[in-house]
Amino acid sequence: MATCSPGCEHYTRACSLKAPCCSKFYICRLCHDENEDHQMDRFSVSVVQCSTCKKIQQAQQICEDCNTVFGEYYCDICHLYDKNKKQYHCTQCGICRIGPKEKFFHCTKCNLCLALDLQGKHKCVENVSRQNCPVCMEDMHTSRVSAQVLPCGHLLHSTCYSDMLKRGSYRCPVCMQSAVDMTQCWQNLDEEVSQTPMPTEYQNMTVMVLCNDCHVRGAVPFHVLWMKCPGCGSYNTVQDGMLVEQQPSQQEQH
After folding, report:
1. Is 123 inside any structural domain?
2. Which DSSP string do the residues of 103-145 spell out, in sequence order?
3. CA-CA distance, 130 to 132, in Å (whole number)?
4. Which of 15, 56, 143, 248 could form a disulfide with 70 if both were Cys (CB 3.0 to 4.6 A apart)?
5. pLDDT tens string 228-240
6. What is the number of domains present in the chain?
7. DSSP state string for 25-87
8. Structural domain that includes position 77
């Protein structure tokens, strides 16, 4: 029995799919979508062509003529052929996921499969995977790239997340909440602010800030570099008002 041969840049397989929409043969739906002005419905595929003997036949895992294995993994719902990556079909997601299955669970509110170590430890955002990645604007739910779950519950492609950190950006592009533990950074900024005194005319100025991390709004001493949240101590804040001169207390006046 022959094993599957390399298929395309997207999948390892030994057959082509007949697109139900245009009746053209493509190695995979992604190859089809890159070359046509419409998308292939993977679930409607019913015919494949063996890459070895060219036999056109019903979608199945093994060629009925030459016994070539079209894919080590085959899903008869998604019509996904590929090398074995411990894939499994999630009925709630409606598509195949890379496993192993026992290391993932399906979060019904987020409506996607997440790693088991996130069970009960992540912030749910309803149907979060049905939104596009806020960095590259590509689909999240059906993407072949794994998802990175941020502390705020929003999703990025793991590759987009890595690129974001390399560029020095540490906030969620959707809600601006810190995406990583910034404790050490805030301590460094404490020292930087303390070593940068404001000019005399600004030393009694305060300003309202809104914290992107804890959402507290409050008045803080104005500083040209950074302004610290009065709630959680984060410097991930935005100015939310005009500068106001702080009036001395009655005790200070006497």
Report:
1. yes
2. GEEEETTTTEEEEGGGTTTS---TTGGGSBPTTT--BSTT-SS
3. 7
4. 15
5. 999 999 999 999 8
6. 3
7. EESSHHHHHHHSSS---GGG--EEEETTT--EEES-SB-TTT--BS-SEEETTTTEEES-S-E
8. 15-84
